[in-house]
Amino acid sequence: MSATPANATRIALLVLYTDHLEESRAFYTGLGLAFVREQHGRGPVHYTATLPGGTVIELYPATARRPVSSVRLGFTVDSRTVTPPLAPGRHVVEDPDGRAVELYVA
Fold this sequence. Notes:
mainly beta, 4-stranded mixed beta sheet, 3-stranded mixed beta sheet, about 35% strand
């Protein structure tokens, strides 16, 4: 395995499994993410958002095989697009599944 330069590595995909699909979509939409509803074949309805730079975030309903996981997320967000509005600085909020979401409000 060859070494990859540090500046070439980036997150390409983040999938969050949730017990609160619609509430999570609304929560993350309030942070400025624009989700598209998707369903592949007979698979579950889920939501996908693509960030600037190409990182894809997907929200899927949790199942026994893929339960809600404990993850800490962090986003830099624009104060003009966050709902509800937040003062500039660092904030920690919870998503509908209780995951800590750190926000860096510009």
